Amino acid sequence: MIPRPGRTLAAPALATAALAALLVGCGGGQGDGDAAPSRPAAAKATAAPPAQAPAKSVRPLARSVPVGLRIPAIGVDTPVMDLGLASDGTVEVPPVTADDRAGWYRHSPTPGQAGPSVLLGHVTVGRYGDGVFRHLARLHRGDRVEARLENGTAAEFAVTAVRTVAKDDFPTEDVYGDVAGPELRLITCGGPRDGEEYRDNVIVFAELAATGGT
Fold first, then answer.
1. Which among 115, 138, 169, 212 would be 20 to 30 A from 45, CA to CA?
2. Which CATH superfamily is 11-43+63-213 part of?
3. CA 138/CA 136 separation, integer angstroms
4. How many CA atoms lie within 13 A of 28 on its CB side?
5. Which three-class secondary structure state does DSSP give residue 136?
6. What letter would DSSP give residue 2?
7. For residues 177 and 92, what is the distance between their CA atoms, to the nearest angstrom?
8. 26-62 confidence digits (pLDDT tens)
9. Domain ranges in the chain?
10. Region Disordered: start and end of each range (predicted)?
């Protein structure tokens, strides 16, 4: 099923992201931070059981660009930059710099809107050391993720699953596919390395749990 335009990604970006590839930067070694692109397929690695529907739904938020991201369980408190599509049709990644930060894929919903909002971050940033998502795989079901929005509100999400998947088996539909409520996807690299690159992607799935002011 291709997600419907307007519910998740804009039509051109949707086709590219869902049918072409997702390029997730790892920043391994001294390279430029680009990992091998992933092809759509079912996930085959560690996956937590799907979450049950929340007992009380949280009303979606109006569109507002994310400017910050907090994940207390792993010590993340980072500004968020906008990311689009690279010239080859893959998703951009944040630059490999000492001032590492997360990036929001701007063709996905903003955090708190209905649909999957997608944020990317490096696990390592070459000679600069650890990336902002270095410990993403340590998250557990129920951990909180707070997205601070440009309009002064905040969207708080609860982790529902943490999955490690081979890059050749990237679960495009699970990440980009249409969902009824506001959800979050956090993506980085993980697993063993092949030279300078990591073999896997770590994907955190989360659902909106609360909203409020920052």
1. 115
2. Sortase (2.40.260.10)
3. 5
4. 19
5. helix
6. P
7. 19
8. 554 433 333 333 333 333 333 444 444 444 578 999 9
9. 11-43+63-213
10. 30-59
